[in-house]
Amino acid sequence: MIRHLGVATAALLLSGCAALLTPPQTAALLAQPPAHLPVRAERAEVPFFPQERDHCGPAALATVLQDVGIAAEPDRLADAVFLPARGGSLQLEMIAGARRQGAVATRLPGELDALLAEIAAGHAVVVLQNLGLDLLPRWHYAVAVGYDLSAREIVLRSGATARQRLPLRTFEYTWARGGRWALAVLPPGRLPARATEVDALDAAVGFERAAPPAQAVLAYRALLQRWPANRLAGFGLGNALNAAGDAEGARAAFQAVAEQHDSAVAWINLARLRQAAGDVTGARRAAERAVARATASEPAWRQAALDTLASTGGAR
Fold first, then answer.
1. What CATH number has the domain spanning 7-186?
2. Does the structural domain 197-311 have CATH classification 1.20.1530.20?
3. Backbone angles phi, psi at 264, to 5 degrees
């Protein structure tokens, strides 16, 4: 948490929020609750780490990591995500910190419906609130663990409070001033219920940079299970399998991408993997397909395709 206002002032600001009109997402949600959303849900078993000093970021991150079975302590995470000069933790540090602990950190849509649906799916969610004003912010990370539409409340692990019950409309005001930022932190192989394809891919790619290849494989397989036509995830899976030493799996992954998308790059990679395995005939066929595809619609890859074909003994 980055302090700019005292506790008393913040309390007055929150009281002021409650006196205002119900904000749009809360109003829409309460007026017509989505059929897919249970009236109430709560993850009572989510651990709690009381915030010390301005360490709401490390405390929130430790909460969601521990919840998915990854050992974490706020004091240990503070060195990785807390910025003394800023008096808090930036969102990028929170995401990078989760990845370094072996978790996939995925941004969620900035919609109250999506946030509550994630909780109902059994996932605790890190949220960023601004408990101050736009011009005088007081940033604060909390973990959303429950809600009750009949009581019009959300339940948070927040600060020194293990079970903070906050009116939904008050929460929406503070969350909106925080940019409606929400983060699901899960082990590789599990996807958030309401992540978009773009955000899930971004999370998997970022995770791959920090994780062992075998763990990146799990992240890409989960993504492809939900979005089997995602070409970049197919490439990521092939690269991760190859880096993990699974050459046969990498060949299968690139073949799937090549056939599904008729991609010159995938054909090139498949040709090189087949050649490395001693399958010269198969490599030449893949390289020939790469040249044809690059010539037709992917000219940037034509030279690489020609070079790969030449390395298999084929005619350029």
1. 3.90.70.10
2. no
3. -60, -40
